[in-house]
Amino acid sequence: MAKMNLAKAVKDFWYGKPHTAEEGGRRLGDLYEDKTGLLKHREWRGVKDTFYYMYNIWGYNYVHMVLDILKYSNNPIDFLKGTLRYRWMGQTYLPVIHWFERGLQGMRGEALAASAWHYRAMVSASIHQICNFFNADTRLHGGKQNNAYKHTFYANETTCGTLFYPWMDAGYQYIPMEMIPYFVTCHVNSHTVLNYIDAVQSLGLPGDPCPMCQAESGLFVLDDVPDSAPLIITCNEACDASVSTHTLQDWFANKPLFALPLPMQFDDPLVKKYCMNEIEECWKFIEEQTGVPFSWESMKKRLERQNKLQRDEWEKWEVASKTDYYPINGVAQALFRIYSTQYGIQGDFWEEASEKVKKIMYKCVEKKINPFPQTRHRVIAWSCAPLYYSNWCTWAYNCWGLNVIINMDSLMFDMEIRTDSYENMLEDMATYHMWAPMRRMAVGGMHHIFELWDYMKRFNCDMVAMYDQLQCKGMQGVHGLFEDEFRKRNINAFWMPHALPDCRTVSRAEIRRQINDYMTTVMHEEPLDPSLLDFDDSMTW
Amino acid sequence: MKDLKHLIFFEKLLQEANNDLVKQGKADGNRAIGYTCYFMPEVLLDLPGCFSVRLRAPGCTSPDIATYYLSGRVCHYARSLLERALEGGYNFLDAQMGTETCTATCRFQEHIQQKHLDSVDDMRIIDNDDFFCTFTDIPFKNTENSYQHFETQLRAHVLEPLHEHFGIDISDETLLKTIEDHNEVCRLINEIGDYRKLDNPTITGYEFHVIQLVSLACPKYLILPYLRETAEEMKTREPDQKKNFRCKVVLAGSENDDPDFTKLVESCGALVVCDRFCYGAVESRIPIEVKEGQSPLRAIAEHYLKTSNCPRFMPQDEMRARKKRLADLAKEYHADGIIIASNKFCEYWSYERVIDTFILKRDYGIPVCSIEKEYINSASGQLRTRFQAFVESIEIKQIQEGN
Amino acid sequence: MKKCKCKLGSKLGKFLLKFCGIFVALNAVLFIVFFFDLDGKLLFNVVEPFLKKHYDDMERKDVLKEPYDLDKFPKYKYDM
Q1: Is omega for the bond preceding A238 within 30 degrees of 0, making it cis?
Q2: Which pLDDT belongs to residue C5?
Q3: By the 8 A CB rule, do A469 and A479 touch?
Q4: What whole-number distance in Å separates Cα of residue A206 and Cα of residue A214?
């Protein structure tokens, strides 16, 4: 008996404890401190993976978080000043490594490595963006509008970066105004955004509009948006509240603002011309403001790189849909896709990560390595995800064997943009922007959202995680029909109520409880790791 | 004041969507065409052979089945419309001209649309074999590109379907004639409405609200004689000797087809002299002008984009100008204050209300009462308190200013 | 075994030993920080509360005083 215990201990030490309760289990839930979500100690993943994690992820990223600042910042002191000036910056930058931890918990081998590269790219791109903010911010430069300021475009975070490619050869940068201060912070430190939501509600805004838009305007109410660009471009992606947000932003920013509305009924071939004209009008505005003409070469070369990234993604999807060898976990897949498409080609971080991940993926394919061996259900996540709990997929795999293969947001930009002529490019740009974030399935006719069934088939999924963003009017408006269709089609689907960035409306524990209830009462399954069923992480980042 | 001759008749017409005049219009062989939003030009739906019905769901206080479909977190108006449709209240409709102008009403219209797809079952909510629903893409700007786009859309998604399905004559001549009829309605409503500008108005906000609503909810050719008669009657209507209001207000905000809400405001002492809300007359009753050499459809497309003050409009100059327009209305109608009322869950007006509340007071010195309301106002007690307090605050301001 | 009497060799040996010692000690410390999430604990319990207080106490511009001019910006309309 003692011999057997010793053998098991040695095996556990070398390889890490096995996943399932039957095999002795690693009991990841026991690692958490109550409420804070901090770890009593990090998981021992076996010698190889523990040290891979320590050196190649934990240490590597800490070092690169410093190196990236030196690389992208004109003056690292500005970075420090910005950290002390902006709440979203200070409260978010430091816990980044814990964000990795939450997303990568329990991962081993190729899944750990590949998913971490996606995270690495997102961090690098975020630092690039933060440095662009601070390099140009008049508040950090004694009110002076420096060269960086004059070479920066501000746009609403849902305006795709592709729009600004034509001026990048001339040294211009595009900053999606709220992407770091709102969107990224929610993933990394969900407490920060609550300040902004409360701020805008303090002006009398009711609590029911989309909390993303509330936070986006709240940033301006608290005067927490750097003054880094001479102009703003807004768009109507994706909902009524997005449009309305700009009324407050316009007032508080008080800069030249160009509105770029995109048609809603994008299936209608008649809307394309209108949309193309709108995009060209936007380019005219930029030309007028900067005095720099549109550069086809600048546009073309970045679009080609973007197309390559899109083809990479298709390659990954092909493996994800047809095999069990796809090494990227649900959260790393989803966030990488959203971050890269929103920010666009402004550095080589996306391409570098994509190459590395593809290499790992093809190794899995060649050697028939299943990076998620405990998969019980292949899940497609539909509608918009809870930002404060984007890592729920990691939990769901560890606890229940639910492997999120693909999600709706990733499928929004499912196209290349032709670069053989200006006319073709413009036509594709119109489609791309009409499909852009949160639009492809959410507007232009409710049949788009029911494309779910096709994607379930395409990605070979047997279960649906149906995000239920309580304040999204568009998605709430199809709630009943989805219930009807799930029943009629006998599809395994669970609802995940949430309030996008606001963890006070539906807590992470409540989300887990809903999934637990579904898995036990409907699916009659036992958890792989019972220690993860119920724990209190209400104060966690 | 002496009661208006047709007021009770008008009130009765507003009790249900399929009212007596709608029934008569259908019996005359016309097609009933539903719509919800200002951006669907009603004049196009009033072509000979059909008539427009701007949808309402009076008396719908508990939209239970619609809440299952749309959830309880979507605007009560959209849910009430769906509930009424599910009850069979809109089976008289031959078509619905949809717009994706606000999410909630868009979802309602998508529910009643027959899509004939494998991905989602049609519900056949409107039990009428002829029924169809099309969507028109509405621009967010006032630019040449938007006018052209809107014109193309209206032709493709309104006129041509009406012609194909019901054989409606959509020629320019017929359009011009319909614009004339439409303009007569506008002229009459404006004539009646202008009495609200008097020092002691000879019409209440409630009465005007009722009159404006019947002009939206009934076939124009059938309501016109009553409007003409009412306009005549107004010429000799005497106001009460003693003013029975304490102040005058502009009522602005989101969808409002509930005259009882106006009545509630007026019962607190604030006479509603101007109605700048969806279903109000400020924009919808501006006559359509067809310029020399302009096609009637192009004139219509331009008119509806140029006259709208909807918070959906995105350009910077538009966003800023509509605050001034509201302030100008207060001046034009001699109002002492503005009530901004947004429906719960209306995202456009939630934001617009916030900014209006600050800017109109700060930059234009106009007192503003900012409230959130339901489609059907069950919380009238709370609202009454708010309105009474607002009226008192205006009175105090007037005393302080020595008026 | 013959002991190397060369001074240089002995110095190099000592240096290597010292280097290895420091390397191992550094890695051991790093491992302890890593394994027991000491970085997370420091940030959560010390750094973040300090920063929060700093941001809460910060004086901010009253954005409601920002002007809302009608004619500050032209109409950005372009005929395509």
Answers
A1: yes
A2: 60
A3: no
A4: 9
Whether B317 sits inside 8 A of C75 (CB atoms) is: yes
Assigned domain for A362 exists: yes
Residue of chain B whose alpha carbon sits nearest to that of C69:
B320
B180 inside domain: no
Do B316 and C69 make contact, defined as CB atoms within 8 angstroms?
Answer: no
pTM for the whole thing? 0.95
Average pLDDT over residues A151-178: 94
Q: Which of C26, C41, C78 to mutate to test the interface with A (most CBs of A within 10 A)?
A: C78
Each residue's pLDDT tens digit, B49-66: 999 999 999 989 889 999
Give the C-alpha separation, B148 to B143, whole Å.
Answer: 9
pLDDT score at A94: 81
pLDDT of residue C2: 53
Per the CB < 8 Å rule, is C80 touching A221? no
Q: Rounded distance, CA B86 to CA B92, Å?
A: 13
The per-residue pLDDT for range A126-154, each reduced to its tens digit, is 999 999 999 999 999 999 999 999 999 99
C63 CB within 8 Å of a chain A CB: yes
Q: How many angstroms separate the CA atoms of A236 and A434, rounded?
A: 10
DSSP calls for B64-95:
HHHHHHH-TTS-HHHHHHHHHHHTTTTTT-SE
| Domain range for A152 | 10-532
Q: How many domains in chain B?
A: 1
| Domain assignment present for B71 | yes
pLDDT in tens, A300-351: 999 999 999 999 999 999 999 999 999 999 999 999 999 999 899 999 999 9
- Residue ranges, chain B, pLDDT below 70: 378-379, 403
> How many angstroms from the chain centroid is the CA of residue B212?
8
> Cβ(A531)–Cβ(A416) under 8 Å?
no
Query: Are the C-beta atoms of A358 and A113 separated by less than 8 Å?
Result: no
Amino acid present at B223: I
Count up the domains in chain A and report the number: 1
Of C31, C47, C73, the CB nearest to A94: C47
* Structural domain range at position B73: 17-168
Chains with ≥3 CB–CB distances under 8 Å to B: A, C
C52-70 residue pLDDT tens:
999 999 999 999 999 999 8
- Give B342's contacts in chain A (Cβ within 8 Å): 206
Choose the mutation target among C65, C75, C78 for the interface with B, i.e. most B CBs under 10 Å.
C75
Q: Find, in chain C, the residue whose alpha carbon is nearest to that of A541.
A: C44
Whether ipTM tops 0.90, in short, is yes
Does the beta carbon of C53 lie under 8 angstroms from any beta carbon of chain A?
no
How many Å separate Cα A524 from the centre of its chain?
32
Tell me, yes or no, whether B100 lies in a domain.
Answer: yes
- Residue B36: CATH number of its domain: 3.40.50.11890
Determine the Cα–Cα distance for residues A284 and A176; give it in Å rounded to an integer: 20
